[in-house]
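Two folds, back to back.
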Amino acid sequence: MEENNSNIVAGTAGGRHVGGVATTEKYEQAAPGLLKNSIDRRIVKVRPMSTPIDQLTRCAHTRGATAMTVEYYSVDTKLTEARLTEAYEGTPGIDRGGLTSFRLKTDHDNIFDVSETVLVPEVTGGGSPAGPLVLYVLSRSDEGGLEVTPLNGKVSVSMGEEYVELPHIPAGSRLVRMGRAATELDVQTAQFSALPRKASNNCQIFKMQVEQSTLAKIAGKEVGWNFSDQEEAAIIDMRLGMEKSFLFGQRAKIYDTLKKEYVYFTGGIWGQAPRSVELDLDSLTESDLVGLCSKAFTGNNGSRRKILVAGTALVEALSRLQYSKVVTSAGTRVKWGIEFKEIVSNFGTLYVVHSEVFDQCGHASDGFVIDPNYLTKFVHVPFSAEKLDLRASGQRNTDAVVLTEASCLVLRYPAAHIRVLGKTA
């Protein structure tokens, strides 16, 4: 469709140029979406410390969503250990062509494959020098259990012949998966594939209306986003509401009988994390902080740098600690427009930021460790501004701007995140 405005002229490479005064109407004609994109980029400059989760997702991983309900896959890693369900009491092994085979039953037999080596750290094997018992998986029994042979079992002699014994292994002992051992002529090994787990969340439509003639200001063409106090208060109120929903929202879909439409509610990431750690804030020690770092950074293959968003009571307890060379407070770091306090441990680095949203939602003693590499925001409707001419419609003698976004947060690798539950007297 041809443009009727003679002030918009074609460029040499297919672009369009605006002649005369650049108005918002001309910008929409010449470059649809330009002002909306400007809004989405500039919103992160509005009090970023008040809404760290929302701030982080606007600067990090964002994906478009074609529907209000998004489906995604989260991938876990294979278990690294199992526990013995029945104690091994010295039952004689079975000779298999020179190898002595023993059957062990675990709570997760299926994580072990033929040719894998297995460490039993709590049991001492034979040999010199003595070390933890190491087993080699010969087969996995259809009746349940593993057929294994010890690599450093105890060698005994009976009637002039040597035979291998397996030492006593108590029930509950850990069996840790180690590397596979193949023969020279082996070409194939047991198949391995990680199957992702399907999950879903709802995008929630967040809205805020500001009744002022502000569209030109929101476009940010003269001095950026030149908010008045009222406008800035409206934006921060909207972001605070989104922050609470992103953290503690309940996923749901209901039919509003008055509006005759469905309403979608997003589920918060607090409930998506599978793990929690408890801290006694009244007697918090550096040892407790080491334990927190251990659980946050081990057993999940996540990043070595994670973010701890914490309520007031938890931040106070962390601030009272006397740090040593084991766990150090390394000053502050500004990233994504947020000022973090760094806590460095041998396990990894925590970026700590205070959030009053936790206080307002009844979690002043709690926190949430987030791996930013595995936090994704799905956006169905990008943050945008729509002008309502209420004067022309006869409603009010004002112009209004409605800010809208439909989005949700998901944890793509839930095990990389952990809830921190603080206890106080």
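---
second:
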Amino acid sequence: MRTSIRYALSISLALSLFTGCTKLPIPEKVVTIDPTLSVPSMNGSLSDITATAFEWKAMEDPRVSGYHVYRSAQSTEDKKLQRIATIESRFATHFVDEHLVPNTQYQYRFSSKGKEDTESNASETMSVTTLPMIAPVSFFQAVGNMPRSAKVLWRPHPNAKINAYIIDRLNVNDQKWSEIATITGRLNAEFIDRDLKDGQVYYYRVRAVTYDKLITEPSETTKVVTKPLPPEIKNIVSTSNLPKAVALSWEASPITDLNHYNIYRSSTSNGSYSYHVKLNDTKFTDALKEDGALFFYKVTAVDKDDLESPQSTPIVQGSSMIKPRTPITFDGKIGPNGVDLQWVSNDPRGVSYTVIKTTKKSWVDRETIEINSIIDTKFHDGDIKPNIEYLYEVMSIDKDGIRSLPATAITLRYETK
């Protein structure tokens, strides 16, 4: 009968059997080597980017209860191996070491685990190298001058392991990258970033993601500038000499994709400007209902993407023509032959006059007529009756038919005995 020879060794002595070194603290646990325990017979290994798989022959020794796995540290300067895993079944024949560094060489040894913390001598040293990391996306570009958005494009990654893409955008203020979207599907090749600011610079990059969540290095950075707002409208001119209207004109917008102009109007210079009208010309006549009506205007340009320029400055004031001044020194006399009225012109704009005659037939019955196109500054009314009260007013009329306010009315009555 073979006599089992056991050697009680400190962990430092035990690890010397597994060539190499580690900078990690060495535990002080005592390991007992049983050289009679069967040593794992390795079939081989298969490496991926961050993992390596091992296979060994099935173990028939009933004293074996499992296996210990030893691995060198990542550093090439350290050659010692340290235990990284224990497999608690002698029927196991496979082990996968994960979370490794891509494109890195590692050394492995395996031992059988016996009872009472014993283990066999180490297997032969296996040198494995993980695969290089998948290359970044090779083609990445952006489409700029889009309204409040940016489009990025890339060539679908040729590696079938890729399952998604991470889109990163640079925060220019703090120079930090942040993930803004994940696009699932290797063949997807574009992303549109929305709700951006007008005329702003943005930077993007893309990273590819594998099915097992490995992330490649970023692509090259691409720059995007969003479409700016149309420039402010300049050289707005308004009128104040048109009857019941204000005419506006301005310099045409220089943008090539102009859609229309918007005009905003307010009754006060510092008030709220409300949308008034949309038009395609650089001229507009605002029809008003009153003489001397005053309004303030702002104009904007709107492009085909519905981007609107800032409202024009400075504020433009326009008004309809004011009324002519009222005739003065209005007076009248009544006699058997009629009424004689006279007045003095107070405005050279006046080209004619209108006399308003009101006949008071009773307290409640009145008749009013207008006598128009009077050229002289006096008027004789022969159509009167005695004992009837008449009320007269006179207004000045300009060439556009704008009427002045009436002069203070005079009341005349011819009494018979």
